[in-house]
């Protein structure tokens, strides 16, 4: 068994309601879904235990990962006293019924989804429960109103949003304090910095950065695509298409060269850049290998000067990154506005 890295993992406060987590979390999606076939369950349980022993306490999942298999995997990893050592985060809001993808935020669905996750996870309370995507048919006030009831009933501790616009975050926060907003934030995904990050900071909301390594791009560069299985959804992402990859590969080469000068790996350098965004930011890099987990933990020891931060950012200026984050028609924060509360008629 690989030994846990020696790096001491700091703690940080997420939001203003009292939640504390490890300064780096663990994204669990790729263990069960979307990044190729599901990985062997015993290996993934061992990886999660290794992460917890190393000091990582924020475990991030969703009911759509699998669907459901990620939460079932976590339920097995949480046995034997592990549950008491972690902050458990999962999400709701994307349903696959009859082969059709649908985003839902109506109260009945919110409640049913929560009950389903509690059962699969084998817990009585979820520490951080996110709306994974915003249902643009339901006022955000209605969705958060139901989440507030779940808090009052002790079924969830803290409420989060994912891929929500600044105005949606404000409206939600007015109904019940939002503890964390999860957004894609990395060297090549920086559009959240203009409006969303300042809004979170103004309201005292923590920031959880998903895909801080550009979905693995900052580990291998363009070579990553050659290693992806046909079941890996990254093959469909615009940034990984041949017409985008050639230009994006130049970004990686610059980051790689700087990492060599710094005596670290390119993924450690890219992850360190996210860590340097502030003490209210928790990146959640995912992995399926203990070796890669240990490498990611090494990012906590990488120190960057303001000049080095600026140099890194110059490599991936907005116009330099080719391709969108998601294919067309995917729901992101740019399409997260919901109707006004006055339009809602409860059934």
UniProtKB/TrEMBL annotation:
Residues 316-347 are annotated as: Disordered. Pfam families: Aldo_ket_red (PF00248). InterPro entries: Aldo-Keto_reductase (IPR050791), NAD(P)_OxRdtase_dom_sf (IPR036812), NADP_OxRdtase_dom (IPR023210). Keywords: NADP, Oxidoreductase. Residues 28-314 form the NADP-dependent oxidoreductase domain. CDD domains: AKR_AKR13D1 (cd19145). GO terms for cellular component: cytoplasm. One of its GO terms (molecular function) is oxidoreductase activity. Belongs to the aldo/keto reductase family. This is NADP-dependent oxidoreductase domain-containing protein. It comes from Triticum aestivum (Wheat).
């Amino acid at each position: 068994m690989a030994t846990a890295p020696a790096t001491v993992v700091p703690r940080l406060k997420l939001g203003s309601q009292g939640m504390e987590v490890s300064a780096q979390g663990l994204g669990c999606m790729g263990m069960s879904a979307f990044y190729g076939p599901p990985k062997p369950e015993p290996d993934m349980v061992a990886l999660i235990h290794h992460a917890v022993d190393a000091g990582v306490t924020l475990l991030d999942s969703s009911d759509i990962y699998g669907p459901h298999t990620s939460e079932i995997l976590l339920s097995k990893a949480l046995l034997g006293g592990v549950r008491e050592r972690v902050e458990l985060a999962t999400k709701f809001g994307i349903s696959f019924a009859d082969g059709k993808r649908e985003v839902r935020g109506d109260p009945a669905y919110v409640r049913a989804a929560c009950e389903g996750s509690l059962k699969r996870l084998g817990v009585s309370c979820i520490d951080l429960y996110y709306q994974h995507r915003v249902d643009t048919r339901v006022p955000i006030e209605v969705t958060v109103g139901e989440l507030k009831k779940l808090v009052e009933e002790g079924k969830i501790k803290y409420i989060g949003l994912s891929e929500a616009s600044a105005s949606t975050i404000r409206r939600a926060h007015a109904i019940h304090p939002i503890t964390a907003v999860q957004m894609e934030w990395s060297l090549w995904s920086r559009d959240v910095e203009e409006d969303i990050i300042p809004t979170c900071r103004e309201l005292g909301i923590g920031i959880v950065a998903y895909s801080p390594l550009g979905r693995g791009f900052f580990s291998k560069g363009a070579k990553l695509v050659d290693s992806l299985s046909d079941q890996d959804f990254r093959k469909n992402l615009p940034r990984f298409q041949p017409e985008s990859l050639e230009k994006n590969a130049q970004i990686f080469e610059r980051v790689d060269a700087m990492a060599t000068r710094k005596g670290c790996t390119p993924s450690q350098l890219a992850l360190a850049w996210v860590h340097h965004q502030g003490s209210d930011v928790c990146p959640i890099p995912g992995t399926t290998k203990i070796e890669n987990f240990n490498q990611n933990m090494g990012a906590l020891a990488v120190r960057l000067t303001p000049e080095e931060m600026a140099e890194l950012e110059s490599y991936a200026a907005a116009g330099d990154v080719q391709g969108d984050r998601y294919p067309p028609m995917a729901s992101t924060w740019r399409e997260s506005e919901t109707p006004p509360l006055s339009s809602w008629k409860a059934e």
